[in-house]
Amino acid sequence: MSMSRKPCRLCLLQECGEQELFEVIRQRIAAMPPAQKADPELYEHRLSLCKRCEELVSGTCRKCGCYVELRAAKKGGCCPHEHKRW
Fold first, then answer.
1. Contact at 8 Å (CB) between 24 and 70?
2. CA-only gyration radius of the chain, Å
3. In a 3-state reduction of DSSP, which class is residue 51?
4. Domain of 34?
5. Contact, 57 vs 9, CB < 8 A?
6. Are 35 and 75 in contact (CB under 8 A)?
7. What is the pLDDT of residues 29-41, one digit of tens each?
8. What CA–CA distance (Å, rounded) separates 86 from 79?
9. What is the DSSP letter of 5?
Protein backbone atom coordinates (compact mmCIF):
# COMPACT_ATOMS: atom_id res chain seq x y z
CA MET A 1 0.00 0.00 0.00
CA SER A 2 1.27 3.44 -0.80
CA MET A 3 2.38 5.35 2.29
CA SER A 4 0.71 8.49 0.92
CA ARG A 5 -2.78 6.97 1.15
CA LYS A 6 -4.79 6.40 4.28
CA PRO A 7 -5.81 2.81 5.02
CA CYS A 8 -9.22 1.97 3.63
CA ARG A 9 -11.46 0.96 6.53
CA LEU A 10 -13.98 -1.78 5.79
CA CYS A 11 -12.61 -2.36 2.28
CA LEU A 12 -11.46 -5.50 0.55
CA LEU A 13 -8.25 -5.46 -1.50
CA GLN A 14 -10.22 -5.40 -4.73
CA GLU A 15 -11.93 -2.19 -3.56
CA CYS A 16 -9.08 -0.17 -2.01
CA GLY A 17 -6.81 0.42 -4.99
CA GLU A 18 -4.42 -2.45 -4.30
CA GLN A 19 -4.99 -4.09 -7.66
CA GLU A 20 -1.51 -5.61 -8.00
CA LEU A 21 -1.71 -7.28 -4.59
CA PHE A 22 -5.31 -8.35 -5.21
CA GLU A 23 -4.21 -9.99 -8.47
CA VAL A 24 -1.58 -12.03 -6.58
CA ILE A 25 -4.24 -13.11 -4.05
CA ARG A 26 -6.67 -13.94 -6.86
CA GLN A 27 -4.02 -16.10 -8.53
CA ARG A 28 -3.37 -17.96 -5.27
CA ILE A 29 -7.09 -18.61 -4.88
CA ALA A 30 -7.30 -19.86 -8.48
CA ALA A 31 -4.37 -22.23 -7.83
CA MET A 32 -6.03 -23.83 -4.78
CA PRO A 33 -7.15 -27.41 -5.30
CA PRO A 34 -10.94 -27.48 -5.71
CA ALA A 35 -11.30 -29.71 -2.64
CA GLN A 36 -9.78 -26.93 -0.51
CA LYS A 37 -11.93 -24.07 -1.85
CA ALA A 38 -15.14 -22.78 -0.32
CA ASP A 39 -18.01 -22.71 -2.80
CA PRO A 40 -18.58 -19.30 -4.45
CA GLU A 41 -21.74 -18.51 -2.46
CA LEU A 42 -20.01 -19.22 0.85
CA TYR A 43 -16.99 -17.17 -0.23
CA GLU A 44 -19.16 -14.14 -1.05
CA HIS A 45 -21.13 -14.54 2.18
CA ARG A 46 -17.93 -14.58 4.22
CA LEU A 47 -16.63 -11.47 2.45
CA SER A 48 -19.91 -9.67 3.10
CA LEU A 49 -19.51 -10.37 6.82
CA CYS A 50 -15.87 -9.24 6.79
CA LYS A 51 -16.84 -6.00 5.07
CA ARG A 52 -19.00 -5.12 8.07
CA CYS A 53 -16.28 -5.91 10.62
CA GLU A 54 -14.44 -3.09 12.37
CA GLU A 55 -11.22 -5.16 12.20
CA LEU A 56 -11.03 -5.01 8.38
CA VAL A 57 -8.50 -2.46 7.08
CA SER A 58 -7.40 -2.38 3.44
CA GLY A 59 -8.25 -6.03 2.87
CA THR A 60 -6.39 -7.18 5.99
CA CYS A 61 -7.85 -8.57 9.19
CA ARG A 62 -6.35 -6.77 12.18
CA LYS A 63 -7.08 -9.79 14.39
CA CYS A 64 -4.75 -12.17 12.57
CA GLY A 65 -3.06 -10.21 9.77
CA CYS A 66 -4.50 -12.32 6.95
CA TYR A 67 -5.85 -11.08 3.64
CA VAL A 68 -9.54 -11.77 4.08
CA GLU A 69 -10.11 -12.67 0.42
CA LEU A 70 -7.61 -15.51 0.79
CA ARG A 71 -8.87 -16.75 4.17
CA ALA A 72 -12.51 -16.66 3.01
CA ALA A 73 -11.64 -18.75 -0.06
CA LYS A 74 -10.42 -21.69 2.02
CA LYS A 75 -13.07 -24.29 2.75
CA GLY A 76 -11.74 -24.83 6.27
CA GLY A 77 -11.14 -21.14 6.92
CA CYS A 78 -12.69 -19.47 9.92
CA CYS A 79 -13.00 -15.97 11.30
CA PRO A 80 -10.38 -15.13 13.94
CA HIS A 81 -12.62 -12.54 15.61
CA GLU A 82 -13.64 -13.37 19.17
CA HIS A 83 -17.28 -13.35 18.01
CA LYS A 84 -16.53 -15.75 15.13
CA ARG A 85 -18.48 -13.91 12.46
CA TRP A 86 -18.17 -16.97 10.17
1. no
2. 12
3. coil
4. 18-73
5. yes
6. yes
7. 999 999 999 999 9
8. 5
9. S
